[in-house]
Design brief:
The protein is an alpha+beta fold and 671 residues long. Helix content is 39%, strand content 21%. The protein contains 14 helices and 30 strands. Strands 1, 2, 3, 5, 6, 14 and 15 form a 7-stranded mixed beta sheet that branches. A 6-stranded antiparallel beta sheet has the order 20-21-30-29-26-27, with helices on one face.
């Protein structure tokens, strides 16, 4: 049974990547929602009603200006006229009677697209344009059959008429709702030249009014309410109405300052009495000089054009114009703070920090207090300072991120407790199992070490006739890959082998037994040195299929001191004398790499005052270490060094290079 303890998904830390991804995804969704049309729907249907109704409860709703007079064709007028429309004569008399009071403007909430008298015209011969009267217009990108677009050549439609005289038009940065090359429709030909100008009467879905529609780079169509102002100036990046800068949103639109419908109904008068006074030639006493008169031609039951999305429910479109007119007169504007994307990101980060670093108590307090305080701040700024801020999406992403990371932390804690309890017994069983495995492994290693010791030469130092040799072996692990072999051919010829199987531990030690066994077979067959090395190479390839390689250095020493040196991938042979330490470079390949073995061979004569030696690469790796070793050996040449002296110098290099491998050394001296 495998009782090894596995790290859980939460313990490993991988869960953080998942939750970071979810948090980032939620933030991106919130930002995408902000820029989508759904945000407008939520804003106008849910968020605006909260702010506007809270302002009304706090009695901070701005009043309707006394300078705005609303006259409506209501049910009383409908009954009086006997239908939803005034006669041509009544309409003419009404406008003339109202104009005598010198109002600032008379605005007609309607397109007047009907033709009361076919082939006739509203103005009688000799009558001039009604200078204070403005009618409604509609803009569309489609041509309407059987309808002629309105001409837009008047000065009221010229962009230059509104620009600051000191402003270079090229420097204009103010945003416009662009309706380039769209068609403008309004009154019929019957009313041609009767009114001074037209203005659009469109209400945007996001609860705003576009102050201008740009029809072409030089032509703009104002909103009809703007004709009720004393002055309009377009600066480089701002709009001034009555010399007051109007706050615009990021799209260059004005937020409508809605009032409850009751406010507007109280200030709405029936057209019936105005029409009666006009018929009787009586002066219109309800209108004063400088007032702005708004005539609502569709206000009777069943004839009213209601708009959805108002904070106070469905509202007649004409009353939206009335609110705009009141704002123009009083200078009451709502200032939008366009920082929602940044606020969403900051609240998302705060939610993450709260979820990670707070305990249960503070988390609950933060989760409840943050949305409430943000909403309270929004209501306060809106009601008392007319500042609108985005609060819903930031607090939503804050709460979601806080819940996400708090749940992650609590889940981590719970899982950690469960794992501690579960792993207590698991660890106990695991340690018991591992102690048994360790004991078995120790036994195997001891056995392996004993077997490897049996494979080493019986004597690590000996003399065969006039040839003496010494060997030192330092295993890095209990089982290693270094090996020796001594072959006493005859009284006049001795053979010495030293090598290192690549790798460490048991995987290197196991092939050593095969190598020693192969060498013993070659000794029994009395093979030559070349045949022995060739056989050893081919057998390693055959047994281990190129997965095991081994270096090998061999020397045949004769009685007269002559030597034949062989090398297969080992560091090479060295000859120490009283004059210098000579390195015999013998470049070659290790055993076990290829079937075609390239044996490097060299003959030398070894005098009685010279010492032949070599070692495995556990001491030194690389030319730099070899150079340092030769420098150490050249410091003192007053004696033939013993094997311990050479081992000491090699160990200095090995410790400096931090080599961790088996180390083997052999010295040969022919007296």
């Amino acid at each position: 049974m495998d009782l090894k303890r596995k790290t859980s998904f939460f313990e490993s830390g991988r869960s953080w990547y998942l939750f970071h991804t979810c948090s980032t995804l939620l933030t991106v969704i919130a930002l995408s929602f902000y820029f989508s049309s759904m945000n407008n729907y939520i804003k106008t249907r849910v968020l605006d009603p909260i702010l506007f109704n809270a302002r009304e409860m706090l009695e901070q709703t701005p009043p309707i200006s006394e300078k705005v007079k609303i006259l409506a064709l209501d049910d009383s007028t409908f009954s009086f006229l006997g239908g939803p429309r005034m006669s041509d004569e009544d309409f003419r008399k009404l406008l003339a009677n109202l104009s005598r009071r010198k109002p600032k403007a008379i605005l007609i909430d309607g397109l007047l697209s009907n033709t009361p008298v076919k082939g006739g015209k509203f103005l009688k011969d000799g009558e001039e344009t009604l200078e204070h009267v403005y009618s409604g217009a509609y803009v569309t990108n489609r041509h309407i059959e059987f309808r002629a677009p309105l001409p837009v050549e008047k000065s009221e439609f010229k962009l230059g008429s509104y620009l600051d005289p000191e402003l270079d038009p090229l420097d204009l940065r103010l945003k416009f709702d662009k309706k380039l090359d769209w068609f403008v429709y309004g009154h019929s030909e019957y009313y041609k030249d009767a009114f001074k100008a037209q203005g659009h009467i469109t209400y945007n879905e996001d609860g705003t009014i576009s102050p201008f529609y740009m029809i072409s780079p030089e032509i703009v169509l104002p909103h009809i309410s703007l004709y009720g102002s004393d002055s309009i100036v377009i600066d480089e990046n701002s709009l001034l109405i009555n010399e007051q800068k109007v706050p615009l949103d990021g799209n260059g639109r004005i937020l409508i300052n809605h009032r409850p419908q009751e406010y507007l109904y109280k200030n709405t008068r029936s057209l019936r009495h105005a029409i009666q006074r006009a018929r009787n030639g009586e002066e219109e006493e309800s209108i004063n000089e400088g007032d702005t008169v708004l005539i609502l031609l569709s206000f009777a039951t069943g004839n009213t054009d209601f708009h959805e999305g108002s904070p106070f429910g469905s509202i007649p479109g004409g009353l939206i114009i009335a609110s705009m007119l009141s704002d123009i007169k009083l200078g009451e504007w709502i200032t939008p703070l366009e920082a929602a994307p940044l606020t969403i990101i900051l609240f998302a980060i705060c939610g993450v920090l709260i979820g990670i670093h707070t305990n249960v108590t503070w988390f609950v307090i933060a989760l409840m207090a943050t949305p409430l305080l943000t909403l309270g701040l929004s209501i306060y700024l809106f009601a008392y300072h007319s500042i609108a801020i985005q609060w819903f999406l930031p607090t939503s992403i804050f709460s979601l991120n806080a819940l996400l990371y708090f749940a992650h932390n609590r889940l981590q804690d719970e899982i950690r407790l469960i794992l501690i309890e579960r792993n207590y017994f698991s660890e106990k069983a695991l340690r018991l199992e591992e102690s048994h495995k360790t004991a078995r492994l120790e036994g195997y290693l001891q056995l392996g070490k004993a077997v490897q010791n049996l494979l080493l030469p019986k004597k690590m130092a000996d003399q065969i006739n006039n040839v003496s040799y010494n060997m030192i072996y330092h295993p890095h692990l209990k089982m290693a890959g270094d090996w020796f072999y001594v072959w006493n051919v005859s009284e006049t010829e001795k053979r010495f082998f030293i090598g290192d199987v690549m790798g460490k531990g048991p995987s290197a030690a196991i092939p050593v037994a095969s190598i020693i066994s192969i060498l013993k077979e070659c000794e029994k067959k009395s093979l030559t040195m070349e045949e022995t090395l060739t056989t050893l190479n081919s057998r390693i390839v055959e047994l281990f299929d190129y997965h095991i390689t081994s270096t090998a250095a061999a020397a045949t020493v004769y009685k007269d001191g002559s030597c034949e040196l062989f090398n297969c991938g080992s560091p090479g042979w060295f000859v120490y004398s009283k004059t210098k330490t000579r390195f015999i470079l013998m470049a070659s390949n290790p055993l076990g790499i290829t079937n075609e073995l390239n044996i490097e061979k060299q003959k030398i004569d070894l005098s009685s005052d010279e010492l032949l030696f070599t070692f495995t690469d556990g001491y030194i790796e690389g030319s730099r270490g070899l150079k340092r070793f030769l420098q150490l050996m050249d410091k003192d040449r007053s004696f033939i060094p013993k094997i311990e002296y050479i081992d000491e110098k090699l160990q200095e290099i090995s410790l400096a290079e931090h080599n961790e491998d088996d180390q083997s050394l052999i010295t040969i001296h022919a007296a």
